[in-house]
Design a protein that fits this description.
The complex is a heterodimer of chains A (454) and B (391).
Chain A lengths: L1 E2 L1 H16 L3 H22 L7 E6 L2 E3 L4 E8 L6 E9 L5 E2 L2 E6 L4 E8 L5 E13 L5 E8 L3 E5 L8 H11 L12 E8 L11 H7 L3 E7 L4 E7 L7 E2 L25 E2 H18 L3 E7 L3 E5 L7 H9 L11 H11 L5 E5 L4 H6 L1 H11 L1 E7 L2 H7 L5 H26 L3 E5 L1 H17 L4
Parallel strand pairs in A: 3-11, 14-17, 14-19, 19-20, 20-21
Antiparallel strand pairs in A: 1-10, 2-4, 4-8, 5-7, 5-9, 6-8, 9-10, 9-11, 12-13, 15-16, 17-18
Helix pairs in contact in A: 1-2, 3-5, 3-12, 5-6, 5-12, 7-9, 10-11
Chain B lengths: L1 E3 L11 E2 L4 H28 L20 H9 L4 E4 L2 H7 L4 E4 L7 H5 L4 E5 L4 H4 L4 E12 L6 H6 L2 E9 L5 E5 L4 E7 L4 E5 L15 H9 L5 E4 L18 H4 L4 H20 L18 H13 L2 H19 L8 H11 L4 H9 L6 H19 L2
Parallel strand pairs in B: 3-11, 4-5, 4-11, 5-10
Antiparallel strand pairs in B: 6-7, 8-9, 9-10
Helix pairs in contact in B: 11-14, 12-13
Classes of the chains: A alpha+beta (454), B alpha/beta (391).
Keywords (chain B): Membrane, Transmembrane, Transmembrane helix
InterPro entries (chain B): DUF4350
Organism (chain B): Nonomuraea corallina
């Protein structure tokens, strides 16, 4: 049960009545009895909440930054009209609106309540409960009850870097495929045989085929295809650090200062989310280029393993697999990660390791075991650099800023040192600020492909 | 938000009520209700069967507690002294006659009323003495309560010997007698007032059940009270309420309030409870969510910067700035990784028109001696980098 403000108002009016009544004692008893009777009448005559039935329909998937709707159908099989409010209790970051919706379902009918979800972060969001408050005819008291009507909406990574895809695809077409090259170069493989046309390079004539066909036949070549790309997401503690500016603002993450300004600098997105964005662009590009893409997410155990997705389904499977992954606050186990990669990638492939180029963590973790990996596979390590560190390194003027600049310079130096060491091990390194990571990684992939190093 | 929707729901999922029924509430709550009932029952029984809950009443002839004075009253009665316990001035006046008035607590008495009572007086503690015992002035300091020798010729005190006394100290008026001196003054003063002999003692604890059998306490108390006159023992009224305190023209605060105020306060309480229930009842459960940590990656770098600042680590700060600059300068100057300081300085001085000694000091010299030096160093290193990049 629940009371309304009207009950409190009646009681407040009762104070005045009792104060000026000739016999205050009986007046008090009368007011209280009247109120109790009214509440009792309301509770008896309010539409029952327990027999209500709920059905849901609507979207199951939504991309972060977009809105979706979920419809909740309320069916009232009882004998009385249910009038009041309904709350569909979603998790806070699902951004459900409205919080409470008015409800009026006549007996034996059903009504639809539409809830708009605007999620503020990635992952699975569920509706925990549906609560209904059914008012009585006098509006003094209400019946209240909860129902479970589960529904989960998966919030997918936004794939903001898809704006870079057309330009990279154009580069890919230039490089390859639609125009078979007649010159055999590095990074090409045999494509087909066709009849000689005047103007073809005589060096590409396939004499053995020509002998069989009584016609001059030339070989054509195209860039290598059907290579394997294994994207590895490091979900350890270093990937939880937030960098850059969040393209989709986090609701309630930044407490506002007194002047409406954020009290602290905007915390940005976790490194993991930037890595995912870059991984999606790379996967989209690699799928178009005819390579196979697998995904592994690892910290101390395998978080996600996605393999063998068909080329048309690849992106949707990837975003689905990535959506629930969160950074774990544990040190990543590099040895285990390398073992997991080696167990899964039997053939030589391009291992794209998306992690943080953190010197301390790398020295302890990845550096000792990297040779095992680079001996069998081509390894590309991609890390998000922090624009805030670059801004700090440029700070001059006051002693405070110079001390900060020295600290930032120290961090950058460590980062360059670890990058240099990685390159000496024959590992490709992409180190870019958050907004540039995805295109930089895609460009590096194209360059590797053009050089035939996959 | 509600729209008519007549078509059957397409592919909806089932729902189940989660709110408790009366039966489940009874099942879940009956143990707690039983426990509550037991607690209430035990409390009621101990209250009904327990000792008299009345407070200890200081110097009350009917109180048997350590602070009461029933022992003294019984002793006086055994010696044939009439002891009448009264709790108001009106009752004391009604007894009339030539009596000894013994008063120990004036909080609930108006001293004006006492002034015109005839007979002797024995007063305990700081009264408004101007009217009751003119001439006896309390000293500014309070004397510690302890066993004291009488050191006076007053028969009552001299016969009793040392007694546990202290409290308010007084100055003796002309013609009066002071006993039991302390450093602050006399703690027992007696003198002849117009209405009769008036005795003032600094504290009454020597008359309590606790102290009566120590020293000469009992003797002193009996000597003071057994004067051959009946004793009017004035105590404070039972559970006086603040509203009964005598006010202007004898009207208490309740006389000024409308009669229904108590009942309407009760009604206001009911209203507050209802409003609290209205505001406090939540629609649906609190929804919990496992949120990711919000920690900016740059915090470790900022922390290192603050550490440099706090420890004035100019050597490390300058070292980091120089190493960063050299890391960028050396490839730009076309030198190898292993180039030593002289080669680098020479290459910079040759490319730009900077003084080689200054360049060497900036890149390889001793650490700056103060923060201004560090800022200047950072500026000069920037200047060198700019010059080299313009080559």
């Amino acid at each position: 049960m629940a009371l309304t403000g009207r009950a409190g108002l009646v009681a407040a009016l009762g104070i005045v009545v009792v104060l000026f009544a000739p016999q205050p004692g009986p007046a008090l008893a009368g007011v209280c009895l009247l109120l109790a009777a009214g509440i009792l009448v309301d509770l008896t005559l309010a539409g029952a909440v327990r027999p209500l039935r709920f059905h849901r329909s609507g979207e199951r998937l939504v991309r972060l930054g977009e809105s979706t709707t979920v419809e909740l159908t309320v069916e009232n099989p009882g004998g009385r009209r249910v009038r009041g409010v309904l709350r569909d209790a979603w998790q806070p970051s699902a951004g459900a609106a409205p919080r409470e919706a008015p409800l009026d379902v006549p007996a034996g009918e059903r009504r639809k309540v539409v809830v708009t979800l605007t999620p503020t972060r990635r992952g699975d969001r569920e509706s925990v409960a549906v609560a209904v408050r059914s008012l009585g005819p006098l509006g003094l008291a209400a019946r209240q009850g909860g129902h479970r009507s589960p529904w989960t909406v998966r919030v997918l990574p936004p794939f903001l870097s898809r704006k870079h895809l057309p330009a990279r695809l154009a580069r890919l077409r230039e490089l390859d495929g639609r125009h078979p090259a007649l010159v055999r170069g590095q990074g090409t493989e045999f494509d087909s045989l066709r009849e000689y046309v005047a103007g073809d390079d005589v060096r590409s004539i396939d004499w053995r085929a020509t002998a069989r066909r009584h016609d001059v036949v030339v070989r054509t070549w195209r860039p290598e295809r059907d290579r394997r790309v294994l994207i590895v997401l490091d979900t350890g503690r270093t990937s939880a650090g937030r960098v850059g500016a969040a393209p989709i603002p986090l609701a309630g993450a930044v407490p506002k200062g007194p002047a409406g300004q954020p009290a602290r600098p905007e915390p940005g997105w976790p490194r993991l989310d930037w890595s995912m964005d870059a991984a999606l662009l790379l996967a989209a590009l690699a799928a178009r280029a005819g390579d196979r893409v697998d995904l592994l997410a690892y910290d101390r155990s395998v978080r996600t393993w996605l393999s063998g997705a068909s080329r048309t389904e690849l992106l949707s499977s990837l975003v689905n697999a990535m959506a629930p992954i969160e950074a774990e606050l544990v040190e990543a186990d590099a040895q285990g990660m390398v073992a997991a990669i080696l167990a899964r990638a039997k053939r030589r492939c391009l291992v794209v390791l998306l992690t943080d180029l953190n010197a301390a963590a790398m020295d302890e973790g990845l550096m000792p075991v990297l040779p095992q990996l680079s001996a069998r596979h081509l390894v590309l390590v991609a890390g998000v650099s922090d624009p805030r560190v670059a801004a700090m390194a440029a700070g001059r003027g006051t002693a405070e800023e110079v001390y900060d600049a020295a600290a930032a310079e120290h961090a950058r130096l460590e980062r360059r040192r670890i990058t240099a060491r990685l390159r000496r091990h024959g590992v490709e390194v992409v180190d870019a600020p958050p907004d540039d990571l995805a295109p930089a990684l895609a460009d590096h992939y194209l360059a590797l492909k053009a050089a035939g190093r996959l | 938000m509600t729209t008519p929707h007549q078509a059957p729901p397409a592919g909806g999922s089932a729902s189940a009520p989660t709110s408790p029924t009366l039966r489940s509430m009874w099942r879940g709550g009956r143990l707690i209700a039983l426990l509550g009932l037991i607690v209430v029952a035990i409390a009621a029984i101990t209250t009904l069967l327990g000792p008299d809950p009345r407070q200890e009443r200081f110097l009350d002839p009917d109180d048997t507690s350590l602070r009461g004075s029933k022992a003294l009253a019984e002793l006086l009665r055994a010696r044939g002294v009439t002891v009448d316990r009264v709790d108001s001035v009106e009752k004391a006046r009604a007894l009339g006659g030539d009596r000894l008035l013994f008063a120990s607590d004036t909080l609930y008495l108006a001293t004006d009323d006492l002034t015109d009572l005839p007979g002797d007086r024995l007063l305990v503690g700081a009264f408004d003495l101007k009217q009751l015992a003119p001439g006896v002035e309390p000293a500014p300091e309070v004397a510690r309560e302890r066993s004291r020798a009488p050191e006076c010729a007053l028969p009552a005190a001299a016969a009793a010997g040392s007694a546990f006394i202290g409290g308010v100290a007084f100055e003796v008026p002309p013609g009066g007698t002071g006993c039991y001196p302390s450093r602050e003054g006399w703690t027992l003063v007696t003198h002849a007032a117009p209405t009769g002999t008036t005795t003032v003692v600094g504290s009454g604890s020597f008359m309590t059940n606790l102290r009566l059998d120590e020293d000469g306490n009992a003797a002193l108390a009996i000597n003071l009270l057994d004067t051959g006159k009946p004793v009017t023992w004035l105590v404070r009224p039972e559970n006086p309420s603040p509203g009964d305190l005598a006010g202007e023209e004898g009207r208490s605060i309740y006389d000024l309030m409308p009669p229904g105020i108590g009942w309407s306060l009760l009604m206001a309480g009911v209203a507050v409870v209802l409003v609290a229930f209205w505001r406090g009842r939540r629609l649906g459960p609190v929804v919990v969510e496992r949120l990711p940590v919000v920690v900016r990656a740059a915090e470790t770098v900022e922390g290192r910067g603050r550490l440099y600042r706090a420890r004035k680590a100019r050597e490390r700060a300058a070292g980091a700035l120089r190493a960063g600059a050299l890391d960028r300068l050396i490839p730009r100057l076309g030198l190898g990784r292993g180039a030593n300081g002289h080669e680098v300085v020479a290459a910079i001085a040759a490319g730009t028109d900077e003084d080689p000694r200054q360049v060497g000091d900036a890149l390889y010299g001793p650490p700056p001696e103060n923060d201004e030096g560090l800022v200047a160093l950072a500026g000069y290193v920037d200047h060198i980098e700019r010059k080299v990049s313009e080559l």
